[in-house]
Amino acid sequence: MVRHIVLFDFKDENKQGNIQKAKEMLEGLIDKVPTLKSIEVGVNFSKEDRAMDLSIITSFDDEAGLNEYATHPEHLRVVEFIKTVVTSSKVSDYYI
After folding, report:
1. Residue 18: C-alpha distances to residues 8, 11, 52, 61 (Å)
2. Of the chain's two ends, which shows fewer C-beta atoms within 10 Å, N or C?
3. CA 67, 34, 25, 23 torsion-angle sign
Protein backbone atom coordinates (compact mmCIF):
# COMPACT_ATOMS: atom_id res chain seq x y z
CA MET A 1 0.00 0.00 0.00
CA VAL A 2 1.09 3.58 -0.73
CA ARG A 3 0.39 6.71 1.32
CA HIS A 4 0.35 10.13 -0.32
CA ILE A 5 0.36 13.12 2.02
CA VAL A 6 0.13 16.75 0.92
CA LEU A 7 0.22 19.87 3.10
CA PHE A 8 -1.04 23.20 1.75
CA ASP A 9 -0.52 26.81 2.81
CA PHE A 10 -3.27 29.10 1.48
CA LYS A 11 -3.20 32.72 0.36
CA ASP A 12 -4.78 35.22 2.79
CA GLU A 13 -7.47 36.34 0.34
CA ASN A 14 -10.72 34.45 1.14
CA LYS A 15 -8.57 31.97 3.06
CA GLN A 16 -11.27 30.20 5.08
CA GLY A 17 -13.65 29.99 2.12
CA ASN A 18 -10.97 28.57 -0.15
CA ILE A 19 -9.86 26.06 2.48
CA GLN A 20 -13.43 24.84 2.87
CA LYS A 21 -13.96 24.62 -0.91
CA ALA A 22 -10.70 22.69 -1.37
CA LYS A 23 -11.66 20.34 1.49
CA GLU A 24 -15.04 19.57 -0.09
CA MET A 25 -13.55 19.10 -3.55
CA LEU A 26 -10.84 16.77 -2.24
CA GLU A 27 -13.28 14.70 -0.19
CA GLY A 28 -15.47 14.34 -3.28
CA LEU A 29 -12.69 12.51 -5.10
CA ILE A 30 -13.31 9.29 -3.14
CA ASP A 31 -16.37 8.56 -5.30
CA LYS A 32 -14.74 9.67 -8.57
CA VAL A 33 -11.24 8.18 -8.67
CA PRO A 34 -11.32 4.36 -8.61
CA THR A 35 -7.72 3.90 -7.43
CA LEU A 36 -8.21 6.21 -4.42
CA LYS A 37 -8.78 3.80 -1.51
CA SER A 38 -9.12 6.40 1.27
CA ILE A 39 -8.78 10.12 1.83
CA GLU A 40 -8.62 12.16 5.01
CA VAL A 41 -8.71 15.95 4.73
CA GLY A 42 -7.85 18.03 7.79
CA VAL A 43 -8.09 21.76 8.44
CA ASN A 44 -5.32 22.98 10.72
CA PHE A 45 -6.04 24.56 14.11
CA SER A 46 -2.43 24.96 15.28
CA LYS A 47 -1.19 28.51 15.78
CA GLU A 48 2.48 27.60 15.27
CA ASP A 49 4.40 29.54 12.60
CA ARG A 50 5.39 26.31 10.86
CA ALA A 51 1.79 25.04 10.61
CA MET A 52 0.21 24.45 7.21
CA ASP A 53 -3.47 25.23 6.56
CA LEU A 54 -4.80 21.99 5.08
CA SER A 55 -3.55 18.43 4.89
CA ILE A 56 -4.61 15.35 2.97
CA ILE A 57 -3.69 11.75 3.63
CA THR A 58 -4.59 9.37 0.82
CA SER A 59 -4.08 5.64 0.30
CA PHE A 60 -3.57 3.58 -2.85
CA ASP A 61 -2.88 -0.09 -3.50
CA ASP A 62 0.38 0.73 -5.30
CA GLU A 63 2.34 3.40 -7.16
CA ALA A 64 0.38 2.72 -10.34
CA GLY A 65 -2.80 3.65 -8.46
CA LEU A 66 -1.19 6.86 -7.22
CA ASN A 67 -0.07 7.68 -10.75
CA GLU A 68 -3.59 7.11 -12.10
CA TYR A 69 -4.95 9.43 -9.40
CA ALA A 70 -2.38 12.08 -10.28
CA THR A 71 -3.57 12.20 -13.90
CA HIS A 72 -7.27 11.53 -13.36
CA PRO A 73 -9.42 14.37 -14.84
CA GLU A 74 -11.40 14.84 -11.60
CA HIS A 75 -8.20 15.16 -9.57
CA LEU A 76 -6.74 17.57 -12.11
CA ARG A 77 -9.86 19.75 -11.79
CA VAL A 78 -9.23 20.01 -8.03
CA VAL A 79 -5.53 20.68 -8.57
CA GLU A 80 -6.41 23.48 -11.00
CA PHE A 81 -8.46 25.24 -8.31
CA ILE A 82 -5.96 24.63 -5.51
CA LYS A 83 -3.08 26.07 -7.54
CA THR A 84 -4.93 29.39 -7.70
CA VAL A 85 -5.43 29.70 -3.92
CA VAL A 86 -2.27 28.33 -2.28
CA THR A 87 1.13 29.84 -1.70
CA SER A 88 2.95 26.54 -1.21
CA SER A 89 2.59 22.83 -0.69
CA LYS A 90 4.69 19.89 0.51
CA VAL A 91 4.32 16.22 -0.39
CA SER A 92 5.42 12.88 1.00
CA ASP A 93 4.84 9.50 -0.64
CA TYR A 94 5.77 6.25 1.05
CA TYR A 95 5.00 2.53 1.31
CA ILE A 96 3.19 1.09 4.30
Report:
1. 11, 9, 14, 30
2. C
3. negative
Average pLDDT, the chain: 98
The answer for residues whose C-beta is within 8 angstroms of residue 40's C-beta and 6 or more apart is: 56, 57, 58
DSSP one-letter code for 61: S
Side-chain-side CA neighbours of residue 39 (13 Å): 22
- Nearest residue to 7 via CA among 19, 17, 21, 15: 19
Q: What is the mean pLDDT of residues 60-75?
A: 98
Alpha carbon distance 83, 54 (integer Å): 13
Task: Tell if the pTM clears 0.70, that is, is over it.
Answer: yes
| Residue 76, helix vs strand vs coil | helix
From CA 40, how far away is CA 55, in angstroms rounded?
A: 8
Q: What is the mean pLDDT of residues 34-59?
A: 98
Q: List, in order of start, the domains of the chain with CATH numbers.
A: 2-89 (3.30.70.100)
